[in-house]
Every structure is written in structure tokens, then in C-alpha cells.
Write a structure and sequence with these properties.
Blueprint: H1 4-17, H2 50-62, H3 66-69, H4 77-98, E1 99-100, E2 122-129, E3 134-144, E4 148-153, H5 155-170, H6 179-182, E5 184-185, E6 188-189, H7 190-224, H8 233-254, H9 260-299, H10 303-331, H11 336-353, H12 355-370, E7 378-381, E8 384-391, E9 395-400, E10 405-409, H13 410-413, E11 418-420, E12 427-429, E13 432-435, H14 441-457, E14 467-473, E15 478-486, H15 491-511, H16 533-548, H17 559-565, H18 577-582
Antiparallel strand pairs: 1-2, 2-3, 3-4, 5-6, 7-8, 7-11, 8-9, 9-10, 12-15, 13-15, 14-15
Helix pairs in contact: 1-9, 4-5, 7-8, 8-9, 9-10, 10-12, 14-15, 14-16
């Protein structure tokens, strides 16, 4: 059997030869299909399966072990001793130059495969032709005294090989090449190695030329119609170039008539590179398509749909990588039926062991689908508040007001109460303050009426819901409650409006002749002048005037007066910095 180092070197050189451009990475080793499960007794030459027989023979003759290669032929002991080596050389040459068939399709089962028109104890691996006659290459299963039931190249096929070999030798072109180029390196002539590697820049150049030629009609049409030229081509130019280059290189390699074993390795590596290019192209197209969908959703105001598209892109990206990985394993000759069955059983095990992960995944889809929160929203989750920065497959990341990053599992987020401040259309203004117990009833009436007037006049306060009421008698103060909505969604603007309202209310309290209560006891000394009687009397006189004119604004102002007061207060105040800048 060949050494592992030689086999890996052949695969590496073939891998380099099938790449149209440098920089692509492929699996570090590529193995031919392995023999099926061994049965007792074990054949030391690995002839228990048709695949083991063919690969064992090819590896033996590649290493120049023609005596060992003769053991894979159905010959008598005397013929194997006298003709075995020469017949092995001829069979290898015929298989290398004229076999029509794929080594990948050879059965790896000890019983072989069922083929139409072929007896059960035989396996057809392909056909060789000399241009006039087609010869089936058959394997036959026989009993061996030391290895049990083994597979060999049938005597029927071997009887026709010398004639096919003679015809092929007469038409050999490589006999005209210098002897140095006909020497073998790792089982293949040097001229074929050189031609295989020279085909790399040729296939890369032809791929670029074909792509540019294919783009010319579209470019001319868009120029004729005065349309902008496509710049998105750069996104897929790399993978398309790789795919087209591999196809062209395979076409060129077909004319080289590589040895059968090298042809198998080359075909295997070329398929892997093609799958990598196709996966690369799929990822690029997926990213571009999802980006367009997301931008379209955001342009229509569907921010939740945009976030859902982003999550879907991540899921589809993982699926593309998994499918590409399975395709590569299939191209390398692994039995995907067993692999998929194991994947299904493993999936169940992983499903039971990763319930939380699956819960978080579907929780994220639920959150995005219901548009509970979006990226950029300011919300409260539990006792923490912050801005949503990202909704991933497993968790949602929130930047808190303390500038720390809070990660909440999506499964938890889908089951708890989430308060979204970004969705509110207005902000509640609901202060409560206490007045001193020396405040008279008419002073309270004056103060409450003026606060209502303020709320009705202010252009940033919703008039229909605004109210100010004497709420009750507290332990240390008379309570006044204010309820209104500020017409803004921006919290920073709300704080400025709230400040303006509170300052105006302080002025109203001062004009009413009373003051704010403190959560403490007041001890009056002889020198305390008490409340300002002049100001207090003015507030009382104002209320008395309202009574005489039958305009006492209790329980509220008249609707006509409310309509006159609405938005009549200048805001910002004329003497403020913002008020001066707007004049």
C-alpha cells in the first residue's frame, strides 16, 4: 500500500492545479472512498470490496509494485508469475487512457452493487475503447484461501486488454516528446503535471475574458438608455470568476487524459472548489438580497420587518454553510446516507440538550415578528432601561443608561413585560406638590385656577386632558395634583418643557401669597412676620371679583374661555435665551 505522505502530496499538487486563482483554501487532505466494513477473514490487500480492489491495484502500479498489482488480477498462479507484471502495466495504461467511467461510483459494499445485465458476482466499473471496439471492465468475486471472498479484475476483461493496449500505443502522441518530459513524477508524466499547472493562468484568463464579453451587451444597453452602470457586479465577480475558471480548467484537463487515479483525485478537488465557489456566490447574493429587502422595509417605516430580515439573513447564512459542508463531504466520497441519518439522530440529541438555545431562537423570531421592540428603541426590561443595539439569534443587547451592555436571552424577552418608551406619542406630566397649611381656601382657588390657565395656554400641553386639582390634606401640606400630557416624543425636549412649566408654577405660587411646604415642623418665633398680607389680600380680592362677576373657574373654566386661552401663552418665554433667538 502507498505511504500517506505520497498520497497527500499527489492530492496537494492536484489541488493547486485546479485553482483558477491563488488564495483559495481547501481541506488539507482528500481521501479516496474507503472500503466497507471488514469481515473475517481480512484480506491484507483490501480486496473485500470492488472499490478496494480498484484503488489497491491503481496505488500498487503507481508505486511501481507490479508484482503486488498482479495479485488483483484473476490469473492462475503460473500465469501470474509469468505474465502478471506485464499485464498489470498494460491494464493501468488502458485504464488511464481509455476508461469511460467514474471511480466515485464504484461500490464500497462487500457484495457489490446490482447492475442491469451484470451477474450478481460481478461489478462493471466502466468501459474502455480503442476507437473501434468497446470492452467492459469487469470485476469478479471469487473465493480466496487466505482472504475469504475477494474481488479481482476478471479473466474475461484481461483477455482483451493486450489488443486494446496495442491499438492505444500505436496512436500515442507523447512518444514524440523528449524523454525528460515522459519521466513519471508521483505516478504521472512530468509533461502532464506541467500542462495541468499551465492550465491555471489559461483558465483564469479565459474566465475573465468570458465574463467581460458577457457583460458587454448589458453595458452597451445601459449606456444607450443613459442608465447608471452596475457597480454591484463587484460583489459577485470573485465567486463567478472562480466557478467559471474551475469549469474551464476541467475542460482543459479532460484533453490531458490524466492517469485514472490522478483523474479521480483531480475531479474530487475540482468539485470541492466548485462547491466553495457556489457557496461563496450564494452568500454574496443572500447578503445583497437581504440588504435590499431590509432597506425597502425601513423606507416604508417597517423597522421591525427590517430587524426580522436581518435575523433571517443570519439563519440562512448558517444553512448555506451547512449545505455547502455536506456537499463537500459528499464530493470527498463520504457516505452521506449514513451521515444524514447520524445527523438526524444527533439533531434530536442536540435538540433535547439545547432547548434553551432553540427557545431563544424562536423567542427572537417572535419578538421581531410582533415588533415588540426594534433596534434603536429605548425601552425598559424588568428594572433596567436602555437602547436596543442588536437582536441576534440568541439574545438582545441593550445599552443601558449607565452605558453598560445588558444581554437578555430572547426566550426570556418573549415572556416578560417590556415597556417601549420610543412608541409613546406624548409624555405624561404629573407632578404633585404641597402648600403650607396657612394657605386659605381662596388662595388655593386662585392658585389652582392660574395653574389650569397655564396648562390651557401652553402650546406644548394637551388641552383636552390637562387638569389641576386640590388633591387633599397631607400630614405636613395641602396637596395639589397636576395631570397633563406634553406634546412631544423626545425626552430631552420634554425635560425642557417640564422645567418651563415648573418655573411658571413657582411664579403662580408666589403670586398667590402662599409657599411650598417642607417635610418638617415650623416653629414660629416672635419676630416672624408671617405671610405677606398685601399679596394674600390681592389673591383673595381676585377670587372675590370672580364671584361678583360670576366667573369663578370651579370646577373648571367655561369652554369658551378655555378655547380663548388655548395656546395663547408664549413659549419659550420671551425673556429666555431660546425666545430671544427666535425673534
Amino acid at each position: 500500500m502507498p505511504s500517506l505522505g505520497n498520497r497527500l502530496l499527489i492530492c496537494l499538487l492536484t489541488l493547486l492545479a485546479c485553482l483558477p486563482a491563488a488564495g483559495q483554501k481547501l481541506p488539507g487532505s482528500i481521501l479516496h472512498p474507503q472500503a466497507g466494513a471488514a469481515s473475517a477473514p481480512v484480506d491484507p490487500l483490501g480486496r473485500q470490496t470492488p472499490s478496494g480492489c480498484v484503488f489497491g491495484f491503481l496505488e500498487a502500479v503507481q508505486q511501481g509494485k507490479y508484482q503486488t498489482a498482479g495479485q488483483y488480477l484473476q490469473l492462475s498462479a503460473s500465469r501470474r508469475q509469468s505474465e502478471g507484471e506485464e499485464l498489470a502495466k498494460q491494464l493501468k495504461a488502458v485504464l488511464d487512457r481509455a476508461l469511460v467511467g467514474s471511480l466515485k461510483n464504484i461500490s464500497t459494499q462487500p457484495e457489490g452493487s446490482s447492475q442491469e445485465g451484470v451477474p450478481l458476482n460481478q461489478e462493471k466499473i466502466g468501459t474502455v475503447s480503442n476507437g473501434e471496439t468497446d470492452v467492459d471492465v469487469l470485476l469478479i468475486r471469487v473465493n480466496d484461501s487466505t482472504g475469504g471472498k475477494i474481488w479481482l479484475f476478471s479473466a474475461e476483461t484481461l483477455a482483451k486488454i493486450p489488443d486494446v493496449y496495442a491499438d492505444l500505443e500505436a496512436h500515442q502522441v507523447e512518444t514524440r516528446l523528449p524523454a525528460a518530459l515522459r519521466n513519471e513524477f508521483l505516478g504521472m508524466p512530468v509533461w502532464q503535471w506541467l500542462a495541468l499547472f499551465l492550465a491555471i493562468p489559461v483558465s483564469a484568463g479565459l474566465a475573465w475574458l468570458l465574463i467581460e464579453l458577457a457583460l458587454i451587451p448589458g453595458t452597451l444597453w445601459r449606456r444607450y438608455r443613459n442608465l447608471p452602470q452596475l457597480r454591484r457586479w463587484a460583489l459577485v465577480s470573485g465567486p463567478v470568476w472562480l466557478i467559471v475558471g474551475v469549469i474551464i480548467h476541467r475542460i482543459l484537463a479532460a484533453y490531458l487524459r490524466l492517469p485514472l487515479l490522478h483523474r479521480h483525485y483531480y475531479s474530487m478537488v475540482a468539485r470541492v472548489v466548485f462547491i466553495l465557489g457556489a457557496g461563496w456566490l450564494a452568500l454574496r447574493l443572500l447578503a445583497r438580497g437581504m440588504e435590499l429587502l431590509r432597506h425597502r422595509a425601513l423606507a416604508r417605516g417597517h423597522a421591525g420587518t427590517g430587524s426580522l430580515v436581518l435575523l433571517g439573513q443570519r439563519i440562512l447564512k448558517v444553512l448555506v454553510i451547512i449545505v455547502a459542508g455536506l456537499a463537500i463531504l459528499s464530493a470527498l466520497g463520504f457516505n452521506m446516507t449514513t451521515a444524514l441519518a447520524g445527523l438526524g439522530i444527533g439533531g434530536l440529541a442536540v435538540g433535547f440538550g439545547a432547548q434553551k438555545t432553540i427557545e431563544n431562537l424562536f423567542g427572537g423570531v417572535s419578538v421581531l415578528g410582533d415588533e415588540v421592540i426594534r433596534v434603536g428603541d429605548f425601552c425598559r426590561v424588568g428594572d433596567r432601561a436602555g437602547t436596543v443595539e442588536d437582536i441576534s439569534l440568541r439574545s438582545t443587547r441593550i445599552r443601558t443608561v449607565e452605558r453598560t451592555e445588558l444581554s437578555v436571552p430572547n426566550g426570556t424577552l418573549a415572556t416578560i413585560n417590556v415597556e417601549n418608551f420610543t412608541r409613546r406619542d406624548k409624555i405624561l406630566f404629573n407632578p404633585t406638590f404641597g402648600l403650607r397649611y396657612e394657605t386659605s381656601a381662596d388662595q388655593m382657588r386662585y392658585l389652582v385656577a392660574e395653574i389650569r390657565r397655564l396648562l390651557y395656554q401652553h402650546p406644548k400641553v394637551e388641552t383636552s386632558s390637562a387638569r389641576a386639582r386640590f388633591a387633599g390634606f397631607g400630614e405636613n401640606a395641602l396637596s395639589v395634583e397636576i395631570f397633563s400630557f406634553v406634546l412631544t416624543q423626545d425626552f430631552a425636549e420634554f425635560t425642557a418643557i417640564r422645567e418651563d412649566l415648573l418655573l411658571r408654577m413657582m411664579d403662580i405660587v408666589a403670586r398667590s401669597g402662599t409657599g411650598f411646604a417642607f417635610p418638617s415642623r415650623t416653629v414660629y418665633l416672635g419676630r416672624d412676620s408671617g405671610l405677606d398680607r398685601g399679596v394674600s389680600e390681592a389673591a383673595i380680592q381676585k377670587v372675590r371679583q370672580w364671584r361678583q362677576e360670576r366667573q369663578l373657574p370651579f370646577p373648571d373654566f367655561a369652554p369658551t374661555e378655555i378655547a380663548e386661552l388655548r395656546d395663547s401663552l408664549p413659549y419659550p418665554p420671551p425673556d429666555s435665551a431660546m425666545g430671544n433667538s427666535r425673534r
